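Example record used in the benchmark description.
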Amino acid sequence: MVTLHTKVDRICDENICRIKLKDRLFLQPNNLFCIFAHYVKVRTSPVYCFPIATVLSFLLISKEHIFNDTYVACGIGIASYFLGLATYVYNDLTDIDLDRINRKEQSIITQNLSRPRLILLITFLFGISASISFMVGLYAFIITLIFIGLGVVYSHPRINLKSKFPLKTIVTATGAGLLSLLGGAAEMGVGSNNVPFGGLGTYMPVSTIYLAFCFSIFYFIQSPMGDIADINGDRATGRRTFPLVIGMKGTTAIMLAVPFIMLAISGLCYNIVHINIHGMIAIVGTCLLVTGFIGWISNHLHDPLLIKSKRNNVRYLNILMQVSILLALL
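Model output (structure tokens):
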């Protein structure tokens, strides 16, 4: 029996297939909505960890008065999601040749969508995110603008940082850290209503910076792992990534170093950010899980498709690490 959800997906897919590259810029709302729904469906998997990190950072500062600021937490979480989604859509728009090898179905759909429609969608998502962050506070707005700038220079054909080694990994890790900081900046704005622009003149707590840094450095696992999964397309298009520059074993070594770096940082910051013993046990346990997972990956480097199918596992571990750190700091 065909469900209503299946019918909606079918209608959206049919509308997307009818879109031609030379269509006029004046868009029909239902078509634009279907494009948005399509990218929500196919790109939420790598994006959802961003709003979670943002909200967890918000929780770290808000603590006991979180229920008074629920609407702000929801709003900044939506802004974080839209920022991540817009960046991925722009990446797809500029990565059509690479996706013909790594993600054939995604490449075909992107090619069938007109460039003006995709640019309009990207602009809309960035614009909504910037508007929400501006209403929340100046710090949140500044972080949003910096993230948008990074997202543009990361994929823009004239700059194309994603093709420059090792800037690709550095930029993605920085972007992840910024979206974690976004939650803390949002709570600073809410908690500083007596200060112009909400939060100007106050300082970001060290614990929030520590949380964001850990989220950022975790992308030194996710990004190289993605490079291993996409090695065939990267090699064909001449892109310089960790596996192609330093080899599979060197890439695995970098990934394996990340959980030990996080343990070392947590140890150094134990008294500075007042980590509790239960949270420290959770952090150590998560780092051991990450180490075991990387060890398993190292035995399957010859199978990019298998590694690609396991990328969600890294995202789950990333979220688990964020929750462990949050518990350690509460």
